[in-house]
């Protein structure tokens, strides 16, 4: 048997293979790698995005410093009205608690929503160093009944697009879970939950109240009617729209938002009832003055308007 010697070039070098009828391996020159190489920072960014999608990391960016209301720090979260604050413990609203805001009846739900927005605007004013947004969670039946939120009106109230996050849920259980998890993340300054309080029993509201204490951020639970069952809310408010004073330049124009506000329950305080007016420009409340200079015909005339938002 003859020896067969074949020579092939492997990576530019000559090698010989000798053997009976031995066939030299076919080895091709590797192609140059022209693929672009990713920078390490890009890879780290992609890994973080994948982790967020898989719920292995925080969904929002948590500020390095958090602003809290302390006795020696910012102004307390209150109404700025001595007649109202004397009914509250420590003359202020607790920023780490659950507060219920309900309409006097189902048709007064928009008035309750407007009052909740005014309270949140006051909170933002007394926490100027806190850049976190406000989360508004809405139950789908409530949103379909009373319509979507009006962005221009919210901005006039003080809640710009950068300071407000909205979410809608078909199930009340999912809404409550989201409220709790959002507060635990520490990425929201306050939460408004717009839903039917029939789904909020004592156990559910107790969980929310404890979470609000740990997060030092309030939960405003807004509904169309006062809850019938016991809850863990620190305060309970009943709201109805009130006639507003028209501006002096136009008797037929609606005036500043006004409500009849009733504090029906306050842990450590006492109940009360007032007529309040909200001022957009200064983010402040005032008590509605008596309309003594107008006749009954003017006060109940066809041009009177009621402003709830």
In a nutshell, what does this entry contain?
With 309 residues, the protein is α/β, with parallel strands linked by helices. It contains 8 helices and 11 strands. Strands 5-4-6-7-3-8-9-10-11 form a 9-stranded mixed beta sheet, with helices on both faces.
* Total number of strands: 11
Helical coverage, percent range: 25-40%
What is the structural class?
alpha/beta
Radius of gyration: 32 Å
Instruction: Report mean pLDDT, rounded to a whole number.
Output: 78
Low-confidence stretches: 1-14, 62-73, 291-308
Write the layout of secondary structure elements.
Layout: E1 3-10, E2 13-20, H1 40-53, H2 82-85, E3 98-103, H3 109-126, E4 134-139, H4 140-146, H5 151-157, E5 164-169, H6 172-185, E6 190-194, H7 202-215, E7 219-223, E8 235-241, E9 258-266, E10 272-279, E11 284-287, H8 296-299
Parallel strand pairs: 3-7, 3-8, 4-5, 4-6, 6-7
Antiparallel strand pairs: 1-2, 8-9, 9-10, 10-11
Helix pairs in contact: 6-7
Folded structure, characterized:
- The chain has 309 residues and is an alpha/beta fold.
- It is 27% helix and 23% strand.
- The strands form two sheets. It has a nine-stranded mixed sheet with strand order 5-4-6-7-3-8-9-10-11, sandwiched between helices. It has a two-stranded antiparallel ribbon with strand order 1-2.
- Helix 6 runs parallel beside helix 7 (202-215).
- The longest helix is centred in the middle third of the chain and has 18 residues, at 109-126.
- The chain is globular, with a radius of gyration of 32 Å.
- The termini are far apart.
- 28% of the residues are buried.
- The model is unreliable at 1-14, 62-73 and 291-308 (pLDDT under 50).
